[in-house]
DNA sequence: CAAACATATGAACAATTATTCATATGTTTG
DNA sequence: CAAACATATGAATAATTGTTCATATGTTTG
């Protein structure tokens, strides 16, 4: 096999050109890759995970979430905004309160898959 | 991680004590919550997502991964270490190279769930 | 309307983290 | 063994991000 001359690779490595081309074709669009990473980033914080577990159990207002997590109302509100933007949670107004709830079942499934992976 | 002045919260807000207690009981152990967040944090970076998509297509050496992602060998190696620690990838030695591959099918399932959520 | 309440938000700070650079480790080959 | 190669790693830096604090917005109720 001949050495491949690769302009980008300054050092002389034995790049497998055919393979790299195949991998490149298998790669989704940058937009999708970015969106996927952004989605998982939302799950990658224990405060937000705890909020999701709370909402697994019951629809809950911000105040009770803050009390449950032993955090300030502000911190919880900031995190709820992120969860909302990722369409993982939604909310309805009830009197003075905003009651948050899970947007759909993907949330549960994704977290269940994560739990499965961890138990090994 | 954050400590809140609960006493103040109780003075000002109408906490639903029964509900908060129920939510508290529904919450998994801190260890599990932490591990879950750590796992998803690993998925929450587009470089690591791209590495995983490459490995979906084929087992690959570090050098070809670096070329495919158009990144330095060092950067890829650092990220592979994180993926390895999370048990998402593994590797075998073949001659001079280290061939990385997906550790198990959870990886695929988790990413598929993420893609499903995004397409809406 | 005013007071009380519930939630949201902007700015600042501290902590985390991805990449780069330089170099080390370990393997193969002549 | 020495040279070449493939990968790993430590330190430094820049960028990102979670929490706090102060305050704003918007609702309900007397």
What are the key terms here?
homodimer; Arc Repressor Mutant, subunit A; 3-stranded antiparallel beta sheet; 3 strands; 58% helix; 12% strand; disordered N terminus; DNA-binding
Protein described:
Two copies of one chain form a homodimer. Mean pLDDT of chain A is 88; it is low at 1-11. Chain A has helices spanning 17-26, 30-43, 46-57, 62-69, 73-85, 106-118, and strands spanning 60-61, 89-94, 97-102. Chain A is elongated, with a radius of gyration of 22 Å. Chain A has six helices and three strands; from the N terminus they run αααβααββα. The two termini of chain A are 41 Å apart. Chain A is mostly helical. The first copy, chain A, folds into two domains: 3-36, no CATH class; 45-118, Orthogonal Bundle (Arc Repressor Mutant, subunit A), CATH 1.10.10. Chain A has a three-stranded antiparallel beta sheet with strand order 1-3-2. In chain A, β2 (89-94) and β3 (97-102) form a beta hairpin. The structure holds a DNA duplex (30 and 30 nucleotides).
| Largest sheet report of chain A | 3 strands, antiparallel
Report the CATH C-level class of the largest domain in chain A. Mainly Alpha
Give me the number of helical elements of chain A: 6
| Rg of chain A computed from alpha carbons, rounded to a whole number of angstroms | 22 Å
Distance between the termini of chain A: 41 Å
Query: Strand-and-helix sequence of chain A, N→C?
Result: HHHEHHEEH
Mean pLDDT reading of chain A? 88
The neighbouring-strand order within the major sheet of chain A is 1-3-2
Tertiary shape of chain A: elongated
Strand proportion of chain A: 5-15%
Largest interface: pair, residues per side: A-B, 65 and 64 residues
Q: What is the CATH topology assignment of the largest domain in chain A?
A: Arc Repressor Mutant, subunit A
What is the count of β-strands of chain A?
3
């Amino acid at each position: 096999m001949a050495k491949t001359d690769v302009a980008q690779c300054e050092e002389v490595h034995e790049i497998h050109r055919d393979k790299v081309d195949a991998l490149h074709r298998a790669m989704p669009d940058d937009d999708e890759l970015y969106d996927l990473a952004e989605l998982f980033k939302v799950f990658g914080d224990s405060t937000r995970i705890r909020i999701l577990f709370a909402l697994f159990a019951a629809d809950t207002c911000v105040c009770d979430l803050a009390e449950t997590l032993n955090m300030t109302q502000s911190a919880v509100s900031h995190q709820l905004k992120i969860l909302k933007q990722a369409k993982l949670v939604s909310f309805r107004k009830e009197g003075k309160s905003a009651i948050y709830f899970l947007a759909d079942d993907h949330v549960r499934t994704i977290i269940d898959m994560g739990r499965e992976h961890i138990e090994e």
